[in-house]
Each structure stands twice: as structure tokens, then as C-alpha cells.
Amino acid sequence: MRTFRMVTLWRLPAERTAVWEALADVRGWPRWWPGIEAVELLEPGDDAGLGRTARLTVDSGLGYRLTFTVRVTQVDEGRGLTARSIGHLVGTGHVVLADTTFPRGVGTAVTTVWEVALTRWWMRPLVPLGAPVLRRRHDVVMRRGERGLQEQLRRR
């Protein structure tokens, strides 16, 4: 299976602690992240989130949904995590939060790197020609998440 490496950078005008808390509340993602249709928490993990396991359903925007389970395998509380994904997406993701500055104060940069393969039988033959489209759809879903989280953090 061909693996995709997708890198996303979010710049959020909020303190890292607030961003971490919002991201740690995976059941709340559908409230602010368009495209995330459902999150089912399967295992809460420990106090830091290690072992947290959730099943996500994501609308691709192309007429199909992806369902996959993500399990947190490493945590640097407040700074980042590593997770494994199984289901329609199989692979590893890394999320790193870092302090950054904005014209009006502090902010947080969130870098997400996913290396995943698609497992749906009908998608695999399309991967060689469809990779650019799949990457663009990923970027759209992630941009919508960034905007949604910015709004969520503003409301707090």
C-alpha cells in the first residue's frame, strides 16, 4: 500500500494550554470541526491521555466517509503526542504544539504529520492518479478544523 505523508500547520491565537485542552477533548471535535461527523471514545486512557482510543468518522467532501480508530501511543503532556490509526486509514500521526507570537500576544503553532495508507479496496487503484486530489481534500478538512478551533477558543 502506498503511504501518504501529510503535514499541516495551524497558527492559533491562544495559549498552548487552551489548545491542548480543546484537542484532548476528542468527543467535542464534531462541535467545532466541520467534516468530523462522529467521535466515539472507546478508551479514555490515563490522565495524560496515553492509551486514549477513539473511532472517528470523517466526511471527505467527495461523497464518501472514512472511519478509523486512533490510539494515542506517546504523550508529552501539553506539548504533543503520537498516535496510531487503523481502519480506512492505517498509519502514524504526530502532533506537536509550540508557543509562538502574534501581533496581539501569544499563540500556539500546531504541527500535525500523518503518514497513512488508504485501505478501502476501491480507493487503492485510484491512489497513483488521485493522490493530489486526496491531499487537497485532507488540506480542506484540516483548514476547516483550524478555523473551527479558532472560533471555539475565541468563545472560551
UniProtKB/TrEMBL annotation:
Query: Could you tell me which residue ranges the Coenzyme Q-binding protein COQ10 START domain spans?
Result: 13-112
Q: What is this protein called?
A: SRPBCC family protein
User: Which organism's genome codes for this protein?
Assistant: Spongisporangium articulatum
The protein's matches in InterPro entries, at most eight in alphabetical order, are given as: COQ10_START, START-like_dom_sf
Question: Which SUPFAM superfamilies does the record cross-reference, listed alphabetically?
Answer: Bet v1-like (SSF55961)
